[in-house]
Amino acid sequence: MEDSSLNFLRKTFELLNDGGVFDTKEQCDAEKSLVDFRHPHELKQLILFSLTDNIDTQHDDDEIEKLCRDVIKFSVKTNNRNCHNQLFGGLDFYGLAGEWMTSALNTGAYTFEMAPAFTLIEEAVIQKSLQLFGLDDGDGILCPGGSSAIMYGINLARYAKFPSSKLEGNPQGLVMFTSEDAHYSMIKGASFLGIGMQNLIAIKTNEFGQMNVDDLDMKINDAIKRNLKPFLVNATCGTTVLGAFDDLNKIADVCKKYNLWLHVDACLGGSAILSRKRRHLLSGSDRANSISWNPHKTMGVPLQCSIFMVYRKGILHECNSSSANYLFQQDKFYETAYDTGDKSLSCGRKVDAFKFWLMFKKHGERGFEKLIDNAFDMSLYFVDQIKNRDGFEVIFQPQYTNICFFYIPKFMQKKQERDEKFWECISKLAVYVKERMMKNGNLMIGYSPLSSKNLGNFFRMVVTCQPPATRESMDFVLEQIEKIAEDFEFYDK
Ligand SMILES: Cc1ncc(COP(=O)(O)O)c(C=O)c1O
User: Fold this and answer.
1) What is the pLDDT of residues 158-191, one digit of tens each?
2) Could you tell me if residue 158 is inside a domain?
3) What is the pTM of this model?
4) 203 lies in which domain range?
5) How far, in Å, from the CA of 179 to the mean position of ligand 1?
6) CB 354, CB 125: distance < 8 Å
7) 432 domain-assigned
8) Ligand 1 interacting residues, C-beta cut-off 6 A
9) In this structure, which residue's CA is closest to atom 5 in ligand 1?
10) Domain for residue 247, yes or no?
């Protein structure tokens, strides 16, 4: 007799498939194909979430199946071609296969004895990444997300400049610098690592969202004059909203002048390194001290896959080790340098390298390049279409595959004066369109204000590698916005 849990496991593919998780593009435009949105109070009526019912209750497999079908039904199908809401989208099926195998093998990436093949796979992924970004003699580690990879960078930068901080804690007066458009994980990192949020100094950005390097130089100088202790500059390659790329070479010059650690947050834009046409965006990455890159964003590696790289071997271990002797005994029978766990901040660490490695084996660098170039080309196609359609306006010519734009509804297109009320209406339209998209359930794109540019809400649409975008899928977005906006009425409240 077969174990029922194994039977259930076999069924999971069918459940996902029936739920439309792997739907092909023909089905993707139908209403509710991407999301069947319910408010929390409604969803609570549809699925029994609570675990505080009778302590003797156990559900049989039919009930478990029903629960799974419902969870799938009310989840966002990120693999739908109209899911442009986040910096990640659909996923690569080889990557998914890798993710499933990783989970089934259920091991931790800390000692070679527990993860022999995975340890060598992680090493191969790190070596390849270091080579791509020009840090050939460096080291790295996979982290549970880009925010933690950035915090690894801050931690190493502090240790490199103030090695005694590992034992004694932070010296007084630490300050670090990042652009005003950088990801909020820098702010969280400042707080988490005891540096203090007010000691993260924001640098102005230019009209395209890139760091103003003169402002950086001036603010570092000013901090030194105030007897503060600058130790790190974070440059961003692919900012979260605008997709802007800071000029790494110019920033590296400033870091050299003041002897500061340069961390490059390439969590979003790092994937451009795989395209011969676009890798110039990351020119100067070889001058970074550390880099964070999230192949789970643009490239469709299943969440999460975040790579932290550092220019020098040994420093990760020196900075993070605590030499727990129940795991990292030095008298083991194999080469203990392969026990990567003491370089990491977490103990149990999910193996996130395998799925990416498997994708690499399948697609090769040239296959990735094609997918990345397609994402860029389709975002440029989208911008071209915008320029040819009444009412749409691009805010910034995209540097990456994020497209930021407004839509001016028909009844306002003839308005001459763009006063406060006009912009209030445009801002409210974004909220309205978003709500209607979600309720129709066949399209998701984001919206955002941007205080650094004094902008109210605008649309941020993100094109990723999976599923590969097409001209039709791009046209669909524009048509839907136009259609929904027809019903928008602006009341002066
Ligand atoms: C530019 C940038 N850096 C870092 C991160 C943080 O990555 P994660 O979401 O994996 O923590 C993000 C997330 O969107 C990002 O856009």
Assistant:
1) 999 999 999 999 999 999 999 999 999 999 999 9
2) yes
3) 0.96
4) 98-360
5) 14
6) no
7) no
8) 87, 145-147, 183, 185, 236, 238-240, 265, 267-268, 294, 306
9) 146
10) yes
